[in-house]
Amino acid sequence: MGTEYICYAIPFNANNELGTVAQTTITTLTLGGTGVAEVEIEVANVAETDFEVYFTMNEETAYYYYLIAEESVLEQYGLTTQDAILDYFAQNGEASYEDVGGTIADCVEGTIMKVYTFPYNANNTLGTVNTVDILMGEGVVGLNDVMTSVEANLYPNPANSHINVSSLSIIDRVQITNVLGQVVMTKEIGANGANINIESLEAGNYFVTIYTNQGVATKKLLVK
User: Fold this and answer.
1) DSSP state letters, 41-105
2) Which of 93, 96, 209, 210 is an S-S bond match for 152, by CB 3.0 to 4.6 Å?
3) Which residues contact 204 (CB under 8 A, 6 or more apart)?
C-alpha cells in the first residue's frame, strides 16, 4: 500500500469570498514488494568491441543500481568489493525503476567487462546481488550470485544426457545459459530436486542458475 494524501481545493471568487471546499484522497503506488529483490542479467551477442545486456526486475524489486565497467578500471578506482561499489552508488549512483537494456559499445577486445545489479525492495532492503563477467571477443566467463546465495548441488559434472539438481530450499526453476549469455533451457521445478534431460545441448561450457525460494546459486557445467 502506498502513502495516503488528503488534498483540498479552496476556491475564492473575485470578491475574495470563500466558495465550496472540495476534498479528495490520493494514494500513491508502492513499487516492489517486501520479499527478496532481484534483477536478472541477460547478456547476448558478445563481439570483439560490443555486447548487449538486459536487466529484468522481479516483482519484489522497487528500484536498483547497475554498474557496467572494465575490470581494470574498477581495480584502478578501488571498486573491487561490494561495499566499495555500494559506497560509490551512495554518492554518485542514479537508481533505475524499470527494466532497461541495450548495446554497450567501444569495449576493448580481450578485456573483461563486469556487470553488477544491486536491487532493493519497497523497504529499501538490499536483495540478491548478481554479477556477470564478459570476456570481449569470447563471451560470458563468469556468472555469479554474490549475495543471498543458497546451497545447491549439481551432478554429474561433466554430463552428457542428464543432470540432477538439489537443494534444501524449494527450487522454483532452473535456467541454463551458454557462454554468450543466451538462455538455452528453462525448467520449472517446484521441489527440492529434479532430474533434467540435457541431450539437446551441444558439447561445451554452460552456466546452470538454480532459483530457489531462499536465493540463487549458479554452477558451471561441462557438457560432453
Assistant:
1) EEEE---SS-EEEEEEE-TT-SEEEEEEEEHHHHHHTT--SHHHHHHHHHHH---B-S-EEEEE-
2) 210
3) 178, 179, 222, 223
Residue 119 covered by a domain = yes
Q: Are 154 and 219 in contact (CB under 8 A)?
A: yes
Q: What does DSSP assign to residue 200?
A: T
| Same domain membership, residue 122 and residue 199 | no
147-191 tens-digit pLDDT? 345 678 999 999 999 999 999 889 999 999 887 778 899 999 999
Could you read off the pLDDT of 60-94 as tens digits, one per residue?
Answer: 999 999 999 998 899 888 988 888 888 888 888 78
pLDDT of residue 19: 83
**Cα gap 129→117, rounded to integer Å:** 6
Q: Does the pLDDT at position 54 exceed 60?
A: yes
Distance of CA 23 to the CA centre of its chain: 42
pTM of the prediction?
0.58
Residues 160 and 192 occupy one common structural domain: yes
Residue written as grid cell 547476448: 44
**In the beta sheet, which residues pair with residue 2?**
none
Q: Given strand 100-104, what is the order of strands in its sheet?
A: 39-44, 51-57, 100-104
Q: Are residues 40 and 142 in the same domain?
A: yes
Segments forming the whole domain that contains residue 110: 32-148
Please count the structural domains in the chain: 2
* Mean local confidence (pLDDT), 181-207: 92
- In angstroms, rounded to a whole number, what is the distance separating the alpha carbons of residues 150 and 147? 9
Cβ atoms of residues 40 and 56 within 8 Å: yes
